Amino acid sequence: MKKKETIERIYITNEDFKKIENEIRFHEHLRRYASVRRFCYGKVMDFACGCGYGSYLLSCNPDVKEIYAVDIDKESIEWAKHEFKHEKITYINSSVETIDKKIDTLVSLETIEHLKDVSIIKNLVKKCNVDNLILCFPDKKSTHFNSFHYHDFTFQDIIDMFPAYLCYHSYKHGDVQFVLMMKLPENAPSHIFRNLKDLY
């Protein structure tokens, strides 16, 4: 059925609507990786890299020397190897629990809310001796409508989860909160930095 366009109404098919919504979602994912790329350096792990476009985007930063792009889904990794091959990137089809490498920067974008057991990421950070931790999560309640989300986090929840790290930057992008943390000096008591809202 063809309708005449008016200023107040846009007639669009359901098929076109879904296509546009998917495009918006994809652009949002790209923006998230693009927004953290400048903070990455050295050996980087992209935790839950999916189909590889985010890892590829991170590899364009000259401060990034090597990327371990890890995902548990075999099909995604095969796609990434084919479409987003780069000399800096090693794609790994595995659980992160098997990874035991020194990592300078850990990137984990909208992954932590998908983990039933958040100790997975805490153990990974410790085991890989991560210096620079970059993660983001939905800044809203999402567990009631997204069956793949197990947690609703706040900024302070994340700060408290990594007491050996100091938040050096945080920002919001749409309804997603980004938290960037670096390892505290060895002799600095973590409680000094616990509530960073006092510093603003």
Distinctive features:
single chain, 200 residues, alpha/beta, 7-stranded mixed beta sheet, 5 helices, 7 strands, globular
Structure description:
The chain has a 7-stranded mixed beta sheet with strand order 3-2-1-4-5-7-6, with helices on both faces. The relative contact order is 0.13. The radius of gyration is 19 Å and the shape is globular. The protein has helices spanning 14-36, 53-59, 74-83, 119-127, 155-161, and strands spanning 42-47, 64-71, 89-93, 105-109, 132-138, 165-173, 176-183. The N and C termini lie far apart (55 Å). The mean pLDDT is 86. The chain is built from 5 helices and 7 strands, in the order H-E-H-E-H-E-E-H-E-H-E-E. With 200 residues, the protein is α/β, with parallel strands linked by helices. Helix 1 (14-36) packs parallel to helix 2. Helix 2 links the parallel strand 1 (42-47) and strand 2.
Break the fold down into its secondary structure elements and pairings.
Layout: H1 14-36, E1 42-47, H2 53-59, E2 64-71, H3 74-83, E3 89-93, E4 105-109, H4 119-127, E5 132-138, H5 155-161, E6 165-173, E7 176-183
Parallel strand pairs: 1-2, 1-4, 2-3, 4-5
Antiparallel strand pairs: 5-7, 6-7
Helix pairs in contact: 1-2
Number of strands: 7
Summarize model confidence as the mean pLDDT: 86
Portion in helices: 25-40%
Reported for the largest beta sheet, the result is: 7 strands, mixed
Structural class: alpha/beta
State the distance separating the first and last CA atoms.
55 Å
- How would the global form be characterised? globular
Give the neighbour order of strands across the main sheet. 3-2-1-4-5-7-6
What letter string, H or E per element, gives the SSE order?
HEHEHEEHEHEE
Write down the Rg.
19 Å
Strand content: 15-25%
